[in-house]
Amino acid sequence: VFFPVLSGGIAWLTGVDGFRACQVAGLLLWATAAIPLYGIVLKLRGKPEIALLAPILLTLVDHEKAFSHLIINRKS
Fold first, then answer.
1. Domain definitions of the chain by residue range
2. Global pTM?
3. Are 61 and 31 contacting, i.e. CB atoms less than 8 angstroms apart?
4. Sorted alphabetically, which keywords does the UniProt record give (predicted)?
5. What is the pLDDT of residues 32-67, one digit of tens each?
6. Which helix (H) or strand (E) holds 66?
7. Contact between residue 17 and residue 11 where contact means Cβ atoms under 8 Å apart
8. Quick one: DSSP state of residue 67?
9. How far apart are the C-alpha atoms of 49 and 54, rounded to whole Å?
10. Which DSSP category does 71 fall into?
């Protein structure tokens, strides 16, 4: 429910089309994922250096390639 409301709010406030608003909303939510990721890794590992490395690695992940294996190929 939150993502469509956020996307609609961005589209309404900025006047961009729905597709672009969804991209911006996805980018904002992806960027804010670094904050809880840092906290989780810090709690699990206890070292701030390793906890800082986790959000940096998150920004370097190519999501298109990372999630491409989730598509089921029915042709084979």
1. 1-32, 33-76
2. 0.65
3. no
4. Membrane, Transmembrane, Transmembrane helix
5. 888 999 999 999 999 999 999 999 988 887 666 666
6. helix 63-66
7. yes
8. S
9. 9
10. S
